[in-house]
Design goal:
binds glutamine; 472 residues; eleven-stranded mixed beta sheet; alpha/beta
């Protein structure tokens, strides 16, 4: 069976009996088995997927199937699916089973999606390489010596290798867009609060957002539309109407800004710069206005993100105490040693580093100098960004400063890895929707994502514009 790149093409074949959900599920199960070495899946739900396929095939026959009939999806291991395991790729949650499904998952199931398994990621979604997982690293399907990016590395690798048609990831500082760029697929982070976080394991609550990975803008838009919208279980989820996405809207000339310093940034691979410049020229030739603007706050983005996200993480992760969930140290003998040993043995090094850093920036002697300052910087960045969106429709940058790095690369200092996020964190700090499009290729043969960010809640406009770009 050939892989379908859009759900529409698949549903056409499903409706005329050329294929069935049952055949499709068997096809993906076989591919998952054949590509086990990628380590993309933590658990495969063969039995569930097969029985749902039978039910949905019957619905298709009776003309009662939902909008996602035939869509076989993988879900990142930090998004809850009732009665299934959920660990955020951490030992501390080993053996934990979800008591309920995330609202996003619920909405996909209501439209007859089939969930085929849960996907590997960096522990608690902290990382940019998917090497910080209790289950071991994920490999990039394009070159198994390279990282797939992170933290949603399993979600990206599974779609890129054709192990499922689409997947869900979470993006706190770039974890959907960066791995999408590293594996050559579409990755979309909607506005903060556009998709409910109910059932998403919290990392940094004021940044976290669920979003899709797919092989096309069409599937990206459809998954987004189905998952988006108010939810009584998440008070931070926006009450605003979700603007329907119309992909065949009029082609219009757009105003696009890019930060001068982005393309002059020392960390930027010259070939990535050349490809970004080539895309800018192409956009201009197509009638769009593309202008370089000053954004003096660029150098503060990564520090702001890492101060605030670790502060929030240190508070969110306090609940893993060896009592309520998952792992409890067998060596514990009283309350204090239960906390101490369970957390020491249950969390990996990167997660511990972030808890320590977050606790430090929140501590009374340092709160004003770090946490308070970073909050103020966040406000400045948001205000400046809102100003930019008064004049421009989108902000453009490459998704990442370079193509995927080797799995065995050793970083002498963890902040080296944090700088990976230089172009992606802006959208999380401001809560804006942002998408990585597989529009370019490096001369080393690897894909390069190009990122467009829109003003908050302008997803429909962003996706429509992305559609015109991709189809030209
Ligand atoms: N790479 C970033 C980090 O390590 C982003 C993570 C994410 O978006 N979940 O925090």
């Amino acid at each position: 069976m050939a892989d379908y790149s859009t759900l529409q093409a698949l549903q056409y074949d499903l409706s005329n009996g050329k294929t069935s959900c049952t055949q499709l599920v068997e096809h993906y199960l076989q591919k998952i088995e054949d590509h086990k070495d990628l380590n993309a899946f933590v658990e495969v739900y063969s039995h569930d997927a097969r029985s749902r396929a039978t039910v949905i095939d019957a619905k298709i026959k009776h003309g009662t199937a939902g909008r996602l009939a035939g869509m076989v999806i993988g879900v990142k291991d930090n998004i809850a699916y009732q009665d299934h395991g959920l660990t955020a790729a951490s030992k501390i949650l080993s053996g934990f089973t979800s008591l309920y499904s995330a609202t996003a998952v619920e909405r996909l199931l209501e439209e007859d999606a089939i969930i085929i398994g849960r996907l590997n990621c960096d522990e608690f979604a902290m990382g940019s390489s998917n090497r910080f997982s209790y289950y071991g690293p994920v490999k990039n399907p394009l070159d198994k010596n390279l990282v797939p990016g992170g933290s949603s590395g399993g979600s990206a690798a599974a779609v890129a290798a054709g192990l499922c048609m689409a997947s869900l990831g979470s993006d706190t500082g770039g974890s959907i867009r960066q791995p999408a760029s590293f594996t050559g697929i579409y990755g979309f982070k909607p506005s903060y609060g556009r998709i409910s976080r109910h059932g998403l394991i919290a990392f940094a609550s004021s940044f976290d957002q669920i979003g899709p990975f797919a092989n096309s803008i069409e599937d990206t838009a459809l998954l987004y539309e189905i998952m988006a919208g108010a939810d009584q279980y998440d008070n931070t989820c926006s009450q605003r109407e979700v603007t329907p996405v119309s992909l065949d809207g009029e082609k219009q000339a757009r105003k696009i800004a890019y930060f001068k310093d982005t393309l002059e940034n020392a960390s930027l691979d010259p070939e990535v710069r050349a490809q970004a410049v080539a895309l800018i020229e192409k956009l201009r030739a197509a009638g769009h206005t593309v202008e370089a603007i000053d954004f003096p706050l660029l150098e503060y983005l990564v520090p702001t993100y890492y101060i605030l996200s670790t502060a929030e993480a240190s508070s969110n992760l306090a609940r893993y105490d060896g009592i309520h969930f998952g792992y409890r140290s067998p060596n514990a003998h009283d309350l204090e040693s239960t906390y101490k040993l369970s957390r020491t043995e249950g969390f990996g090094t990167e997660v511990k580093r972030r808890i320590l850093l977050g606790t430090f920036v929140l501590s009374s002697g340092y709160y004003d100098a770090y946490y308070g300052k970073a909050q103020k910087t966040r406000r400045l960045v948001s205000d400046k960004t809102n100003e930019i969106f008064q004049d421009y429709d989108f902000i453009f940058s490459p998704t990442t400063p370079h193509t995927p790095f080797p799995l065995n690369q050793v970083e002498s200092d963890p902040t080296q890895m944090y700088l990976e996020d230089i172009f992606t964190v802006h959208a999380n700090i401001t809560g804006c929707p942002s998408i990585s499009l597989p529009l370019a290729q490096h001369k080393n043969g690897l894909p390069l994502g190009m990122q467009f960010t829109a003003a908050k809640y302008e997803e429909a406009d962003l996706l429509q514009f992305a559609h015109t770009l991709v189809n030209n």
